[in-house]
Amino acid sequence: MAKIIYTHTDEAPLLATYSFLPIVQAYAAKAGVEVETRDISLAGRILATFPENLTEAQRIGDALAELGELAKTPEANIIKLPNISASVPQLEGAIAELQAQGFDVPDYDASPEVTARYDKIKGSAVNPVLREGNSDRRAPSAVKNYARKHPHSMGAWSADSKTTVATMSDNDFRHNEQSVVLPADDSLTIQLVTENGTTALKEGLKVLEGEVVDSTVMRVAELDKFLAEQIARAKDECVLFSTHLKATMMKVSDPILFGHVVRAFFPALFEQYGEVLAAAGLSPNNGLAGIINGVQDLPERDGILAAIEQGYADGPRLAMVNSDKGITNLHVPSDVIVDASMPAMIRIGGKMWGPQGEESDTIAVLPDSSYAGIYQVVIDDCKANGAYDPTTMGSVPNVGLMAQKAEEYGSHDKTFQIAEAGRVEVVNAAGEVLMSHDVAAGDIWRACQTKDAPIRDWVKLAVTRARASNTPAVFWLDETRAHDRNLIAKVNEYLNDHDTEGLDIRILSPEDATQLSVDRIRRGEDTISVTGNVLRDYLTDLFPILEVGTSAKMLSVVPLMNGGGLFETGAGGSAPKHVQQLVEENHLRWDSLGEFLALAESFRHEAERGAPSAAVLADALDKATEKLLDEDLSPSRRVGEIDNRGSHLAIARFWAEELAAQTEDAALAEAFKPVAEAFAESGDAIAAELIELQGSPVELGGYYRPDADKASAVMRPSAAFNEILAKLA
Ligand SMILES: NC(=O)C1=CN([C@@H]2O[C@H](COP(=O)(O)OP(=O)(O)OC[C@H]3O[C@@H](n4cnc5c(N)ncnc54)[C@H](OP(=O)(O)O)[C@@H]3O)[C@@H](O)[C@H]2O)C=CC1
Ligand SMILES: O=C(O)CCC(=O)C(=O)O
Ligand SMILES: [Mg+2]
């Protein structure tokens, strides 16, 4: 039997799964397609890591490792929902919850060995394992048409907006980059050479012929100087200070950068109490909230809290995550994540929220300048020409290089905070020094690898998409960056392997590519962005959020390099604030459009492998999705209106109608006739019921690991709806 794996993840997408998966399983079974789940949630991954701490009954297998292997085989057909890439505060929260639920998992800092095991679960630990292919993310035409007909709100931009991006002009990752292309398979050593001797930071790093390896360093003395300047500048210019990092995906480097921002904002706190905080194990890398919670029992508590208050008083106004609750940009490193936070700011006219809940211009600090410039181009364009118009604007789909832990994605085990001044060298097996950087104590040094096969595959995917959509494609590569120069040479070479006759394919720096793309979207023209991994992440939130209001509506396909398919649902994350709304008022505004789009592609993939009924399911689902968009039945943000469950009802109903009406597969039509009839009879009443039940708090029995029965009861509250699905059993 054909088999699709549907991932069990976290937060809002997990809750949506409790409602949607039973529908999918019931419908797919009729077409001979089995849909199984695998638990890759943060809680599940923690439990799978510590079997020896659990009872026999509590143990679960390592589903991520299993799917990682599956992704390398032609059999793979995986639907991947967004999952938590946990920061340390999130990881500690999940551990505490599991302990309270009776799982005897150790504390994060129980021992260095335990911390090392947890660090493998931390941050972006799922996506790089499953993404054994490059990425193809775009807004399908039904979604673009919907946005043109029902434009989302866009804040106004004013020419005198003081919002700006601040980034380093030297001494950062971008400016210190060195890059080599390996002439043959090799084994590398990364070593720190100091006056006291040589220490290996990493040995036996296997590399393949044609692989691009780069290394770089962020010099923290210069970083601190830069941050102090930006804090003073925000105060002078009376704008909010905000910082936008990726402490989740860039799990080693970016929490350290975040910690520097916290220190820079509260200099007196760290000058006076730095040692006390360090002795109490409280690191600024994990945010202000951890420090405030952690000092409650210390004798220095009052002085420390006063120093924090003094920091707020002395500094500029800080951008807020939740001004009602006093949660600032610096409270938790995973609250403000650059890919989603910068577009959200741009969408509302270059504003963030200040301490009094006021909308305000901001200096957006992105310390490393590798990619920060693209946002300044967009901001300048909006200042000059006003906000974009979703009813007329073109689209910027993306072809992203990410397979086999390409570029920054794979840097985690090659990122080091330098203990002692000296020189970091990358040395090959023959003892030759390939790259070398002088470093000071505290500097952040990192290396990245990009294998040749994924680069070839990426170029091919770009040409394929340019041809299929008859759209110009731009490689966003910067000839003043060492890594990008190596990539440009490869792109030029590999383009020769393809028929590019009549295609418009260019290579431009990220800033020039942004300018070209925004000029074209204003004219209603589309431009494919072909980018490395970080820009893939940034652009697949930026353009969708501007074009269609959210990255939830993206089709996000990963053609796996060994022939399987990974179908991601949307391009956004797990939207923690949606869970809060469900718990408080029983309304889930998660939009499952990404799931609908991914599922159709996954069925199609199954059909190509010999399950013809799956193609019928796919086509009917796509038609149902179009109808759902047409009739505006996506979840509303407000309680008392259609939510995630109501939109699942709509998709189930339209999908059944389409299946009953089609003539390609008589058995399927027959099977779905009674279902369509049942929906015709009671669908409207169920829709009303799903709205009426909203308004009061609900109990899920856990945040990271909700109780399955409780979550299912909340997400499948309509007996009438459940009975209709039961007809298919
Ligand atoms: N692929 C993956 O696995 C990814 C995982 N993540 C993880 O997700 C978590 C949250 O990250 P964050 O940066 O806040 O990003 P999110 O995308 O989760 O949230 C940002 C905002 O995007 C909007 N949004 C995104 N998806 C949907 C959807 N399906 N339905 C409705 N609205 C949506 C919401 O905006 P609004 O409420 O304004 O409508 C939401 O508040 C983190 O743990 C992060 O690590 C992040 C990105 C990708
Ligand atoms: O892997 C992650 O942490 C986030 C990934 C992400 O944001 C994306 O793929 O768009
Ligand atoms: Mg992203």
TrEMBL record:
Signal peptide: none annotated. It catalyses: D-threo-isocitrate + NADP(+) = 2-oxoglutarate + CO2 + NADPH. NADP(+) binds at K80, L81, P82, N83, I84, S85, N127, G573, S574, H578, R589, W590, D591, R637. Mg(2+) binds at D339, D537, D541. The keyword Oxidoreductase applies. It is an enzyme of class 1 (oxidoreductase). GO terms for molecular function: isocitrate dehydrogenase (NADP+) activity; metal ion binding. Belongs to the monomeric-type IDH family. This is Isocitrate dehydrogenase [NADP]. It comes from Gulosibacter macacae.
